[in-house]
Amino acid sequence: MSGKRNNFFGIFICDLISKFNKYFLNINYILIQQYLIKHLSSKKMNKIILNKVYKSSELIFIGLLIPTLILVYRLAENVILILWLITLYGGFIYLKYHNRSNLKQIMNFQAFTKKNVNIILVRWLLLTIVIYLITFYFYNDKLFTIQKQNPYFLIVIFFVYPILSALPQEFIFTTFFFSRYQNLIPEKLQILTSAIIFTYAHVLFINFIAPFLSIFGGLIFANTYKKTNSLALVTFEHSLYGNSLFFMGLGYYFWGGSVSIT
Fold this sequence. Notes:
The protein is mainly alpha-helical. It has helices spanning about 1-25, 30-40, 45-50, 50-70, 80-100, 105, 115-140, 145-150, 150-180, 185-200, 210-230, 230-250.
């Protein structure tokens, strides 16, 4: 049994890196850019892209339809690819129609103040204890699974997860979300709405623990971004929790418990 789990984790990371190379390193960015500029540069198209009806449809498509399609058609093994395709689309819309800032301003590393970092770290340490207790008492068979089977794989996760998963998620559900849909959703409901969409994006794993933990994570991450306007800081925070879940063993439910595993 342990051999199968070990093999699963190895296959997962190899498959993840393979998909990233296949679908992103070989994309012809120049052709994509020319196509988008040609078709989205007119004043008429600008009005369509910024129209509330279009944005509402876009929000439903990204937040509801795509996760549902992944669930129904069992596309969970392609979730990283889909996540980055949405990020590419969102990045273009964000930079062209909402914020022409450079990458440094979008990341906003200045938000890494002593106060902000301390708040994030203290909260993370306390909640990590909670995660450990949940794993120990309710999912003991998953506790420290990776360390027991392949500790080197855990190191790979610590470096890969923030870039391939946490970063695009936080761009979509915070940076893009708060800028793109601020005139659609009342300010008091924006954090909650972001968290709900973030949570629904995790139902594709068909287990209780992924969406249950995601609602709390979504609220925390949305609140952090709303206060700091920093993609870098919220990605850092997301990475802490994501890596903690894999470290404790509950990371299985964010990948191994997906619809693609039968």
